[in-house]
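Hi there,

I know you've been waiting on this one. I reran it after we fixed the sequence typo, so this is the corrected version. Both the input and the resulting structure follow.
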Amino acid sequence: MSEPISATSATSAVVTASVLTLVPGAEPAVMIGAFTGAVLFIISNDAAGNYQRIGLFIVSFLGGVLCANWAANALSALLPNALQVNVGMAALISSACVVRMLQYFMKLTNNPESWLNALRGLRGK
């Protein structure tokens, strides 16, 4: 039975994540969390080509880095006060979710009537 990932691929992923922690001014947990979330998103996504996968990976990684603090604050507000949300975990969650949310909003704009109906539902008709 063949391995799903080669040793070279695994080593290059670990080296890339390690190098990302050296970015000045960036928290290492955020970089590792965003990288892991982007990898998980790409693995679970059924994108057609390699260029599309690379583009989605970049958008997912940047979304995870930029939305990490916001996601940590949002999760902290939703969870009980005794639980603290790690920024790295928030980066992982946000990088895995940000592209899906963007794709959902893009899908809504294909049919403006459904978007308007959703807004009317929020207003209370």
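Quick highlight: The radius of gyration is 18 Å.

Best,
R. S.
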